[in-house]
Records
---
Amino acid sequence: MIITVTPNPAVDKIYWVDQLKMAKETQDEFLTRARKSDTSAGGKGVNISIFLSRLGVENVAMGFVGGYVGHVVVRDLRDEGVTTNFVWVNGETRTNVIVLERGHEYVPIMIDEPGPAITPEEVARFLRRYKRMLNRATWVILAGSLPPGVDGDLYRVLASMAKEAGARVVISAAGDALGRGLLAAPYIVKPDIRETPVINGLPLSTRSEIIDAGKRAVADGTGIVIVSHEVTGDIAITADGVWEILAPAKTTEFKNFVGADDVLLGGIVHMLNKGERLENALRFGMAAGMMSAESDKKICSDLDQIEKHMETISINKL
Amino acid sequence: MKVRDIMTKDLTSCEKDVSIRELIFILDSAGVPNMPIVDEEDKVIGFISEKDIIRACLPGYFDMLHTASFIPDMNQISKKLEQISGDPVEKYMQRDMIVVTEDDDDLQAAEIIIRKNIKNLPVVDKYGRLVGQVKRIDLLRHLL
């Protein structure tokens, strides 16, 4: 059983607009009308859960939810066939707003709320439930930001518990949560480089920086480090070598980039979980991520399209 | 159709040492009328509903009354609820609960829900671990 943990889930509210007027440009009162909109459960782990469920992979989504928005998240996940096991908290689950302007969909405007403050009692309640779930876990995916009030050490603690229970651990996060999570030597790490292109204090901007930082993390015990380098290319570093995964896509043709990175990681885990070789898993993950970015929908899971797209992905050992 | 095809795949539950105050918070937040109680291996060991908590707050002679007019006011119940709010759910949970497995027929689940007049029925796997619940609305949704 695959378990995803999203400590700070969200509802993603996506607006498609013809033109986004900015206050600093108009210097006047203005109204931007959305051409269409979409509301769906979001957050890195939640996106992965939905993608896996659409592929027919049983999985359980865990984390903290609260208030009206929390109910929307849980309901959406259940409708997608995901098993839910969230701890209910006092605050309100966050809403993240994404604006996609016609012709500029590849550079979405994203506004993320911080999320509800979580109390130590709520964390303790979660840990008890998480420990019980580990009895059934083969993979644990720890993904996304930590909500206010949660200690930056959470991913390290959860990763250590999961490893002790015999599960493979994946961490997709940034900053302190990722840095400390690395101390537990997870199986896969995918740094979120949108805000802080850094892993363990090492920069992740150029190809050589990514490779150096990845090799360092692998030397410290991480199995596979996967880093997005440029939008249509990723670099994977393991003890066996370094691979560059390239997609022939034009970023200007992206229609909805939201969640594409999570689909990529979900695709890799899905294939490894099936016993596929890493190279094939990377190819599938990249194809799935690209298909998602090129589709209007937040998460594209058309298996035929993904498999067809796999042929266009090139993998070079560096 | 099998239970697995109609159940709500939700594992919201609590342990037997959770307090009544905490349980009320979970029931209220999750919007559910009752909750399975599980052990450290996620095996279902009991069941507690809003009704069980209300009953625990009523005077022992309540069942013998035809109306509630003999109870002076809600303060009495409120005080009792405050008294028991720190008690573990174990003290008030139903131990002779009924469960179904994922592989049982939907008709079997429906019969239990109707005959026992319960809103949610816990669903367990072959190891007795919680995997979901069948709710009355699940049955109606799938019958329509």
Note: Chain A touches chain B through 21 residues (CB under 8 Å).
---
Amino acid sequence: MTPQIDTDPAGKEAVFQARGLTKVYSMGEVEVQALRGVDIEFFAGEFVVLLGPSGSGKSTLLNILGGLDSPSGGSVRYGDHDLSVYDDAALTRYRREHVGFVFQFYNLIPSLTARENVALVTEIAANPMTPEEALARVGLAERMDHFPAQLSGGEQQRVAIARAVAKRPDVLLCDEPTGALDAQTGVLVLDVIARVNRELGTTTVVITHNAVIAGMADRVVYLSDGLVARVERNAQKVAAAQLRW
Amino acid sequence: MRALTRKMWRDLWQVRAQAVAIALVVMCGVGTYIMFLATLGSLRDTQASYYREYRFAEIFASLKRAPDALGLRIGEIAGVNHVDTRVVVPIRLEMPDFDEPVTGLMASLPDRGPPGLNALYLSQGRLPDPLRADEVVASLPFAQAHGLDLGDRFYAVLNGRKQPLTLVGKALSPEFVQLLRPGSVFPDYKRYGVFWMSRRALGQAYDLEGAFNDIALTLRAGANAQFVIDRLDELLGPYGGLGAYERADQRSHRFLSEEFNQLGTLASLFPVLFMGIAAFLLNVVIGRIVTMQREQIATLKAFGYGNLGVLGHYLQFVTVIVAVGVIGGTLLGIWLGQRLSLVYMAFYHFPYLQFSLEPMTAAEAGAASLLAAGAGTLFAVWRAATLRPAQAMRPEPPARYRETWIERLGVKRWLSQPARMIFRHIQRRAVKSALTILGIALGCGVILTGLFQQDTVGYMVNVQYGMSQREDLSVTFTEPTAYRARFDLLGLRGIEHVEVFRAVAVKLRHGPRSYRTAIRGLEPDGDIQRVLDARLRPVSLPADGLLLTDYLGTLLDVRPGDSLLVEVLEGNRPVREIPVVGLVKEYLGVSGYMELGALNRFMREGPTISGAYLSVDSAQLPELFTALENMPRVAGVAQRVQEIRNFNRVMEETMLFFTYVATMFAVVIAFGVVYNSARIALTERGRELASLRVLGFTRGEISYILLGELAVLTLVAIPLGLLLGYWMCYYIALALQNDLFRVPVILAPATYAFAASVVLVAAMLSGLVVRRRLDQLDLIAVLKTAE
């Protein structure tokens, strides 16, 4: 299968450009080939959904884009920078300055309140919004002083989104943000992500294996068995509130 | 406050029980360190300033009698600064309301002005009036033991004449900081005292007017002490000099130095042991706490916190715990140090105590604790932080479990599934399990070190006074006496058995090594006084040649068959060679032993004795004391029971304090280790156990899996701990041995049982806590969240 390389019709510059990206894990006694040569680009300000069954390499790709992991082979560029040669310190700086993450299981620090979880990030960012503003954006102005354990799953995920966007990142990477949530709450969370993408112009990549979510993306990238199977562009984006699953 | 700092405080609160356990362990380590060093430092400072202020002499010598004019010639020896000539005599006393024998030492005070050297610290009263022959100052402990007040009267036998004395002052002297009767290693203030009276009065009583029989002097800075001693011996030789010696050989100073050395040894051993164990635990426990935060570390890193930032965060976390331990330990150490100093002050008669703690000491303890904790943190954080965050957030790959060797031994079919889980888990995490075992074992072993001295002392008393020195009374004569005195003693009512002895003060030389001690000539095949071989069997004295205490053999580097040069320190001071024919076992003191006749032949004297060991009918004791006191040649009578009592009293007062503190600390450490091991195991395996609950395992069954592992590790750790503890005791004993005493390593079964029980109880209590936590496991929450 020849991977399809897409270009942006509006001529926007590519934020990420991956070429021949491979990744091999050794899990205990077995080796897992997570990526087998991915070629893909992501463009400034777009909303991309990465779709694929579990084990297709979505998370691995996202982690490499976010500087959480390094590829085994190939290259990945962020703007002019080659992330694949970054060392740990450079990757840390890259994440600190450019990337916001949202994880399936929220990964909030349980010992900190919502506000403090956001402050954890704004304190080390160059030009952040205040934690209060970030939480207001996700509709949690009222629950800022609650600990994660006192928040519902949806609320926790919204705190995680506030934490991710508070530093005004260039890219927002979300790994199954609704994976642990019911449909109604999931929609709420997706709406917040879409709004951040729209209002702040943050390049947003969302992983899911829920095909319904693909409707709200500018582009949908289908991964299968460690390769990009195809890329689709949505002529018409669907608002999160209209999604049903 | 920064969010990360808040996280640190809240995390700390989350693990507060464990943090407190760790801080307590640190506190015990630091506490012992400070306690010993502060006590030692304070005693040494006190000693130094007391010696300086009261001008403690540097060279001492006794002689028979020399004219005062000789003192002037001695002052002219190059390097001598100040000379004090005086009269010092052993005396017998009769105290009202106390009918047991009391002996003492009477020293003269200059008639004009205060004494130049070895000045008295008068705690009450005044110095004697030179014109009043009955006025004396008594050593304070003696006055206290007898409840004497100023103006009280008692009697002393001075040169064979009974003379009334009036107490005019109570004093301490730098010469008698340790107040011991000659031949005894434990103080008995009721039966032995030091007294001072005017030179004129004492000189008259002993026909030493215009003469002296004792001399003390100080040296100029940079003087050659050996040169002065040699010159002094030359000058005093014709006047019956018994050999000059330096301060290092002065009895009180010698004992003090040895005890300080012992304290110094304990001060270096125990804190190192305690701090070492605390550090080890800190390292392991902190490492595991940090490892459990692997996911949070990954999250921090995902948001752009660097490795140093993350490391700093956890170091801060650890520093708080350690700081609490160090501050608490320092305060505890100071408090205990003051207590311990006071305990020692009851035996060392200093006029005051200068309690001080070098700031450096506290800083060292703090630095060592932080370093140990920091190393543990660094290692664990580094392991977690250098993982790519994506990897750290993924559940760890399934661990590689295998059948254990225990199962392969063929016992598999008897092991239930949970039992197999226990063994596989232990084997799979072999290093972690080994560290836990080692930690618990150290906690167990250290308890033994606290208790072993008590067991050992009991054993030493039994050997010394039950197997070797078995007399009821010992009598010493004022000077060597003809053998027939034996029959005078046998004629007294109440005496059942007599064994006589000859004791000769000597300096033993072998090559460059020399040692001042006494050679005792004993009756062959004596039953009261026996020398023992290495296996504590009575040795029959050889017809010729010398037996040496084994430790003295080591000190002088002689083996049976070698020859020693003996410088006799009495009479006309002959120097002769003698073969060493064997070594004997003794725990207290070191000396040489010969058959009585052989010693008399060696001294080229007729049948001569210095004293006798008696077994008596205790019902006749009071009459016997009176009869013995009326024998003019008797210089002193000692009762073995009193020696044992004195021994036990000293041990109880000094050692019990120490044992108590050390044992308390050891117990805390043991609890700290066991509790932390259990809690960490719970946190590490909570998820797995919750999954088992979901599969239908009961609370009891999952408790069995977790607590079963703790039980297995504890049961392995206990015998190992007892073994480690024995080794620790062995090294402590080795470090403590000196010529005053050697400590055998004796551990009673009850002591082993106690140490094992403490660990078992700690394990059971920790198990209960963990069990309660297991009952509260939130099954749903555990399954909903990621690893």
Note: Strands of chain A lie at 14-27, 30-43, 47-51, 73-78, 81-82, 99-102, 171-175, 203-208, 219-224, 227-233.
---
Amino acid sequence: MNLTLKIWRQKDSQDKGQMVDYKVTDISEHMSFLEMMDVLNEQLVNTGEEPVAFDHDCREGICGMCSLYINGEAHGPDRGITTCQLHMRMFNDGDTITIEPWRAAAFPVIKDLIVDRMAFERIQQAGGYISVNTSGNTQDANSLPISKHAADEAMDAATCIGCGACVASCKNSSAMLFVGAKVSQYALLPQGQVEAADRVKNMVAQMDLEGFGNCTNTGACEVECPKGISLENIARMNREFMSANIKG
Amino acid sequence: MALDSKVPEGPIKDKWTTYKDNINLVNPANKRHIDIIVVGTGLAGGSAAATLAELGYNVKAFAYQDSPRRAHSIAAQGGINAAKNYMGDGDSNYRLFYDTVKGGDYRSREANVYRLAEVSGNIIDQCVAQGVPFARDYGGLLDNRSFGGVLVSRTFYAKGQTGQQLLLGAYSAMNRQIARGKIEMFNRHEMLDVVKVGGKARGIIARNLITGEIERHSAHAVVIATGGYGNVYFLSTNAMGSNATAAWKIHKKGAYFANPCFTQIHPTCIPRSGDYQSKLTLMSESLRNDGRIWVPAKIEDAKAIQQGKLKPTQIAEEDRDYYLERRYPAFGNLVPRDVASRAAKERCDAGFGVNATGEAVYLDFASAFERYGKEQAKIHGIKNPSKEEIIKLGQGIIESKYGNLFQMYEKIIAENPYETPMMIYPATHYTMGGVWVDYNLMTTVEGLYCIGEANFSDHGANRLGASALMQGLADGYFVLPYTIGDYLSNDIRTGKIPTDTPEFDEVEKEVKDRIDFFINNNGTKSVDHFHKRLGKVMWDKVGMSRNAKDLTAAMAEIKAIREEFWKDVKVPGTADEMNVELEKAGRVADFLELGELFAKDALERNESCGGHFREESVELDGEQKGEAKRNDEEYAFVSAWEYKGEPADAVLHKEELEFKDIELKQRSYK
């Protein structure tokens, strides 16, 4: 199929940036979206133009690096996948596809479609861990039984790949689904209980400091999340946060 | 230089303990004055950085991604082995050691492997304490599953995302240290060379991938944890950015490179569909627990399937060839990866492949649906369930075990694997070879360490499933933090290593000159053009089945591609900005050298062992007829190559392998 691509080009963080049109031809429906981008870039390199910079790495939907806003949707029109898992069979011959970076004040553009997501890392550094010595001198793994239900729920929260689609999809640029998932993983496990109150307070404080917006329960994040992270995690974070503040 | 593996004396079971009791330690106050650079932040690098910082060293960690949590360890699906014997099926450290040495086709170093088995249990303890949500049974205890090449269940898992969870665990430990200021994290940075001062590794030259700035970083020791070189094939299950540059650069600065030809072709990957393909996707080996692999028994059925005239579900049970179960009744679908890959190739080469390209076999879950469905019906007290009910119940169980993998498959192939069998084919996955290290995980350059997939030591000629995660974390959490201390105990009075020295000047100049060359080359062909050509030579001539004629040809062809690359590669943009093509150019330049050494190593090793199959070395008769033939008399050694300019001129050093605790036997999975 033949396609028209409208792509955000921005030289660096200082540049104002603009949409630029490109044409690609003979795109197979079996290609992934990023393979289509590879075809475009090969074309650009061969004509001496600078290729479009976009984040990607594992290309199997787990590293969370890829991050395109395609036709107004984070990770494009399909559900439960990342951009690298999106296939061209979701599009039709002659389509015009608009490709933009994540848009959020806390995610400044580095170049073209690449944004800086360090705010997520700083939130995790504010408390997204259990303070156990990394020495191996811990108790036997099976000395702490954890109900299958709790372990499975913690796992569901822990599958978050921190791609930022939730922030990009939210009209408030809220990071609460991401932070909710990270808080929940530990809140659901007995190992995480000891520091639970400090953790949620510190992580929420850092989230606010980074300039993410608030949650108004539209649920757009949950719809666009490639890993199906549930809104329940936001509720759990709010509960944890309230009880942490009440207890002082 | 003679190779000294520095394996401690004494019985194998006591070596590590005795070693730890006798090494020099660095006092906590002195650790504060010692810097360590860790390059790569996957499971090995991430766990090492966290542990070294915990101990009190100042760690500088480098990742080319925007965060350590995106390293490709994250894509490991199936699980992590540990000899906990929670299942009570007779597992022990010795058995894990034995299985790993045997699975590696007797080409690994016994003492390293025993140590790996010994610390394996502790890894699970550490990860659980960090909050890694491993799968559990209804009693709340940890669940295990079984993997290829072993007869016990010792694999711990977190759905099909074990690598992700372990990496997030290691990253959480790093985060705690980053927050304390003990780890200084350099994201979006790539190491482009190592700096030696007085023969010792004392720093690196790195490029800031956002600004293009070339930076000098010094330390008392440098740890390379940058993963394997599978992308030398262009198509592999590695991430797009996975590269061998750090490992290759240290090789050129004196670190020997060991067993490059030991590369694992994983049997269960999604087959390729066209020339535009950028990577191959793995379907976890754990699927072989429940899936049965087959091709049509009749050639006419295979042809009809290839032409799209017949569906797999239309082929009767008796017309299917479950070739692994047929050839290897004892291990069946759970034979080790190299054996399973070659068996798939054998059937496809014979014309029995099942997709349009003829390069695919089926992985069928129909019998697992039925088996689990019946069990579920019984558990839930459903009397006389219909066949549909049974299948539905069984599918539910399979979904809970491998749901994400089935979803991934459906998205890529656009077929529902609950209704029709999956198609799979082997793909390059893991490299057992890598930088040569001694028992301390130190390379042949003093103060330069190499851990995880980037080194060569533990998996011999073939790695067993769920052992990569184990090795990465063992090296990072439990081995390196001890061994590096013994070395650094001599550095307590050294003081900060300055970077304004001739040694740093010189290496920085080399790095900058090379970047300038690429930018100013004004060639006509893209980096990917050359990478794809290299990959094709590697796959066709240095792939699953190798012979002297093809390997000799491959060496010449790779050299020719390399020469053309340097003349004609085109890199747009400038050096002082984010420039993805420039990054790729540097990596492919190194693959073009590594590929030739790889072929040379494969040519030199005229025996079949593990992932390395030489057509000249097969069993000619008896029960094992047609199977790989190892040659212990001539080849029971590690090939450690010393760089001498051109890859073809590399000099071979042999580390003879001694097997004192395991009897050398032909691997039989029949």
Note: Chain A has a mean pLDDT of 96.
